[in-house]
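Example complex used in Figure S2.
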Amino acid sequence: MATEITAPPYRVIPIIPAIKPGAMEGLKPFVANDKIQEALGFPGGLVEDWKDRAIAKMGDLLKKYRSLKVYLDACVHCGACSDKCHYFIGTQDPKNMPVARQDLMRSVYRRYFTLPGKLFPKLVGARELTKEVLDEWYSYYHQCSECRRCSVFCPYGIDTAEITMAAREILDSVGYGQKYSNEIIGKVNTIGNNLGLPGPALEDTLAGLEEDVKEDTGIDVRFPLDVKGAEVLLITPSADFFAEPHIDSLIGYAKVFHAAGISWTLSSMSSEAGNFGLFIGNYEQMRKIALRIRQAALELGVKRIVVGECGHAWRVAYSFWNTLTGIGDGAEDRFALQLQKQLDQRYRQPAHICELTWDLIEKQAITLDPEANDNLIVTFHDSCNVARGSRMGEMAGGQFEIPRSIIRAAANHFVDMSDATTREKTFCCGGGGGLLTDDLMDLRVKGALPRMEALKEVADRDGVNFMATICAICKTQFSKVLPYYGFNMRMVGGVHQLVSNAIRLGDKE
Amino acid sequence: MPQIEVNGKTYETDEEGYLVNLADWNMDVANYIAKTENLNMTEQHWEVIDFLRKYYDEFQIAPAVRVLTKAIGKKLGPEKGNSQYLYELFPYGPGKQACKVAGLPKPTGCI
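Predicted assembly (620 residues):
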């Protein structure tokens, strides 16, 4: 890359940074070309009547999602959210204050959908939708990772992510889509995963993993693919097949299934947990992606559906799969009802891999030797979509406690980061929401600042040398940005990577 | 579409400089792309490029990092069969940077 990217300095006292107006102005991820756009049913390029269409689309969304209208009406500009965004903290651009970013759309909403805005636009901060405004949307709505940290602090509970999603949906509808996210969705629709990894390549990769684990442990741990009649269908991010450190967690899941004697399978047709339909705010694409999972579950006749370490996948699975697909109660079409009957209702449907593993640990169905991780002092990064968009287990806050409990069972040394940066107040890794792309590297490095500050604190004080997380995006983002902050890229890894190191195999034979 | 010019011939690339047409690739183009990436191509680099192209030809995708490290380890000895060795050759990441020089499409997804 031509331009030098550097990390912002750690703040001496982590207070609201001084603003730098226009610091990130014009930053723009690559625009999707006609081929990518049209494959998803969006116009190939910016349409001539984009203004009318954008306003009409906004009107549609306001009718379809009452929440959007409430969020656009309710804000009183109290400022509680302004310094809660990692991108604002890292970039100091005032338009990255959540309230200001929302106002880029709110001002247009006022102009076309409220009476005072129609009559006296200047008096109420309403403005015309011009090409400059549209470009500003494209830029700043791709500087929000939809992590919803600001919403935690909003006294009205405004879900800022939903406004970003609406903006991206409007942009797509006028032919102004983002290359990274839309190209990926196209690959899921045609090949079955974000990577574009075809069945034979997946089969070859899994066979290689079986060899590796055999070499390491002497035990035949299987990585089954397309096995009809398996008990569990594992849906995991395709990065788990491809990237490091992700693949070590995949090995961890396989060892857990092996040690517990649970039959399981992956699907070559539905080999992706991620659902970028959420990121672009498009219900149809989100449903289409989710339905591949239902199809695989029906074809393979599985009894349980388990989701691997992927943040937004778990949000979609936990919060939306029920009505989207019938995995969980809600959808009423025939296929959903058929799946309902097929799945074993004594288990959570869907279940997170952490729920499954923790349940087995508690029942003593698997044994971990935490000494195996004695070289590590571990901390845990809560991934935003798990922390603020879902839950695990039976109790409130299970999504925070269960992964930590697994870590404590798998390692002897665990330290939490500052509680202003964990659990529901966790900071985004800086690469979520469809921003994990090389063309946004400057933003990604800057957006990681608050998490890196919290990590630095425990690294200096407690000697933390490993940050575990349960999201493919977090793992990739941290591998990339840690070196900018003076850390080793290998310092990040999955919770099931720790499990993989510690699990006792072969007891059940 | 952006283009690059090598030895008087033009080649189409995407916004990030990845070749659009697989068949356009040759050693000169690879050397040109390597230069834009500040890579000093050695025999070790070409070994990786060669494996990537063969794997792509068979599977229509670049190999997983682990598949690549294993193949390199088998060929060049276990001390080179790790991702650290690959990162030394391709500092921006063996997946993306090596694919670019090999004329393969950029891997997408959460990687």
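Chain B has five helices and two strands. Chain B touches chain A at residues 15-16, 59-61, 63-67, 70, 83, 92-93, 95-96, 107-111 (CB under 8 Å).
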